[in-house]
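note to self: the first set is below, dont mix up w the second
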Amino acid sequence: MTEKFDLILPVGQACSCSQSLRTAGLQFASFPWDWIATRDIRKCIESDCSCGKDFMRKEELVRLEPRGDHPMDFYRNTRINICYNHDFPRGVPLDESFPAVAAKYERRFARQDRLIRGARKPVLLLRIDSPIIGPTSLDECRYARRRMAESFPGKVFEICLFSLDRDRPFEDRIEEEVEPGFLHVVFDYSDKTPGAAEYNVNQNAIAQVLRRHFSVRDYRTHEEKKAFVEKVRAEKYANAGVSTALGYRLYRLKTRLLKLLGRR
């Protein structure tokens, strides 16, 4: 039986949390911790409680060594010890790239804060431990839940933690209610696909568990829904190499015909 929430928020440890939520169809907008790597959940929560005040200061960012042919430069925030792996274009000086990145996070914190304050049903915090960062303790999750409730009076927060156990297959996973409003899920959700990066997770397996327990209302504004539809349409057209609706219909027709001919 699923429990419906007004909002489900990813709170680290890495981008796999947001990606799994999106795979499950439980996240419709971008939030501050979607693409950031962070070991300490308390750092996430303190920034959430202050609506991102002083979240990014240019003088506190240190550039890290690039990773292979990754298209982004990596930076670490020395004050709150988080890593930005998906925000700064590779080779662009920080003075040039910082304003746009800072503005993006300002928008995301503002959106998150607005949705929390407007929630009538509980808000779920989701934490998925990365295969390469390290475990989050139950007490840290209790702190996160309590701190959010203190900062947003009258709002109800629940939390779900996914912990990695490489000796426990999906079929033998643990789904334990630590206390009312706190679900702890344990199994080996590392990505077993040949050649997969060591930090990858099996998003489909995680999404299956999420859908079993949770559902969420579509909290997007009319403008956000419209923008999403337009974005999806543009991506479809680009993948098909066309620029109009008629061109896309002809592309689909051609694809179907080729598939039918291939079956003969």
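second set (the one i keep forgetting abt)
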Amino acid sequence: MDLIESYKVSAEAIAQSVGIDAEILYNPDLELSAVKVNDFLEEAAKACEDRFFGLKLAEYQSFDVLEEDLRALVKHAPTIREALTIFVDGLAQHSQTLSVCLLPDGGGIFTCYEAKGVLSDVQGRHDRRVQAIELGIAIACREIKAVLGKVWRPSRVQFRHSSPQNISALKKVFGDNLFFNQDVNALYLTTEECDRQWAIETQSDVLLNKIEDEQPEERGDVSPFILTVNQAVIKLLNGDGCTVQKVADELGIKLRTFQYRLSQANNSYQDIYDEIRLDLAKEYLCGSGLTVTDISERLNFTDPTTFSRFFKRRAGVSPAAFRKSIP
């Protein structure tokens, strides 16, 4: 609210324009879907005429507290690595439209951040996620800095979206090691950084202060198992690739058992996989400078024609037409 008002813009008008009850701006106990949060952030950046609205908002916000027992576990984690692992596992059980996963690398870990949503009945106005992504990674970067020191900057921060003309605001927050048009939104921590002691006195406001989750009536009756499958597919798709066998292995269950449990939940691996690929395709088309060929390769399609047919069948328009429709 304070940030938006500093631009002489009405936060209530922005909320109403994306279908949010203005009361939620004044009542922190009310819940709001992550899809609507994304819409609000994109509309706010537009109304305030500030490409870096999300970065500035990171100075005012952090993630919402999860359950008390999870907060206690994170608070007493001995290292940054374990604090992140606990947070990621907890988030996977609570949200279907926010996703954080850890992808090990030879010299450290990519902390990957996804926003908005697959498997959600909530329809959003914006497929672009620039503000939500930069906001989330900026919060994480700032709070990890509280542990590693004020002069610390990550050795790599990467985004799916393309680079703005002037990246000085991003460099101020993240440092010089910025990469755009990447296959995943991520903050990289070296092994040494991951193994640093987690400072208990700083982390109560770290990763746990503001997770916007769906209201029950918006979220629908989605089983914890399906949410876990969704998280596993996103993680594997961001890594070495995703197959039904790899997802079953990731979850530690036999393939036949995995498929049976999906059928019991009236779902299938292919439906989940395709919904996630459609969601990511829209994000690439909205925010990145990647060609249709590049996107088809990243989403594991055999060729651009197959991808275009898939996209048109599900979105109703071709990838090129969808990209042109984005303001």
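remember for set 2: Residues 68-203 form one domain.
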